[in-house]
Amino acid sequence: MAGLKTIILLSFILAIGFLLVILSSALFHNFLPLLVVATYVLAPVPNWICGRAQSNDDFMDGGSSSIVELGRFLTGFLVVMGVALPVVLAHTEQIRYEAMAMSIVGGLLIYTTIISFTLFFREQEEF
Question: What are the alphabetically sorted keywords of the record (predicted)?
Fold first, then answer.
C-alpha cells in the first residue's frame, strides 16, 4: 500500500509542477517559459542512454566509465540550462520575473519528480 501512496504523491507533485509552468506562461501571455519543460523532461535521457551503453563487467566493477561521466555531464548541463533559461529570459525582459520564479519552481518540481519515479521503479540487480 505504501507504493501506491508514493505513486499518488509523486503524481500530485508532478501535476503541481506542470501547473506552475503552464500558469507562468498563461498568466503573463508569453509562452517562452514552456521551454523549461522540454529541458527538464530531456534531462534524465543522457544519463539513461549512457548508463545503458556502459559495459558491465562482473570482475572489474570498481572504476568509472567515461561514457557514464559524459551522461552525467549532459544531464547536469540540461538541469542548469533549465534554471538559467528563465533567468536569461527575464534579464532580457522577454518574460516577467514572476513568470521566471514560477517557471523555475515548476521545472524543479518536474525534474525531481522524474528522478523520484526512476529511483522508485529501479530494478534491483540480482547476483
Answer: Membrane, Transmembrane, Transmembrane helix
Q: Which amino acid is at 98?
A: E
**CA 73, 78, 81, 83 torsion-angle sign:** negative
Sequential DSSP letters for 31-67: -GGGHHHHHHHHTHHHHHHHHHHS---SS--SSPPHH
> Do the beta carbons of residue 17 and residue 34 sit within 8 Å?
no
pTM: 0.78
CA 56/CA 37 separation, integer angstroms: 33
Q: What is the CA radius of gyration of the chain?
A: 17
**Residue range 15-30, pLDDT digits in tens:** 999 999 999 999 999 9
